Amino acid sequence: MQGDKTARTNHSLVLAKDLLRKVFLEDWHLKLLALGITLALWFAVTGLSKPTTARFSNVRLSMQSSDNTITDSEVNTIDLVLSGDARKINQIDSLSASVDLRGLAPGERTVTLTPTNVFVPLPPGVKIDDIWPNRVQVKLERVEEKDVPVKIETMGDLAPNLEVYSRTATPSRITVRGPESVLDQLNSISTEKIDLKGRTGDFTLTQPLAVTDSKATVQRGDVSVTFRIGERRIEKQFTIPTGHGKSVRVTLYGPTSLLQKRKPDEFKVTFDSEDTPQVTLPADMVNSVVIKSTKVL
Fold first, then answer.
1. Which of 7, 72, 117, 280 lies at a C-alpha separation of 20 to 30 Å from 52?
2. Which CATH architecture has domain 152-231?
């Protein structure tokens, strides 16, 4: 009996030694590689999920509204404290934030900024812990519309013998949308300046509108502008005899070359039933010269 027990013990020891040899000595290089891969994965996972906290300063804050518009706000940027996955936070390059003000009535308002009402596009696993400042003052105004005339702006000078006869914009009026306080001060909307230097005749062009207040938007961005340009005009008087013992003094306005060398006998004067003088112009003046006044002497 004692011999059998000893034999069984020796056999167990042999099996144990054989098992240990297989575990630690056979294919040891493969087992070492597997261990290395396991350790690397473990460090990667634990490093990726390591929590951290970081502060981001001067994050641009935009405010969203529907029927109202923000005309004044003392805060345009905020600081954010973020927490979460260290690697994801370290990969954040830039941030922007927005707060929804839809539903607020017009007037002076104090808005509290919290992680629930401030939207910031963040990667999964990162959240907002703190916002500074957490209160902002804003002025909300209702958005209105107003039709205003287009004002044509120019720069540069024509040649001394030329002048602008007329300038027209099509359309002549533009609908502007913006806060009430802005529209109250807006009486017209100007085109960008049109250079007249070197112009010698009529022309038409498409010109952008100059919107100087960023809170206002226009129905369209440009208008068609037409200029009529011609010879500089002068005003000149002629005393015309009528043959009935009367003379008529007529004041004409037109191009210099058409009026300077004219003689009184080139005009014809008749009287209507109410004894009002009617002046007939020479044919070359009909479409270019205006009769400003007549007076019987």
1. 117
2. Beta Complex (2.170)
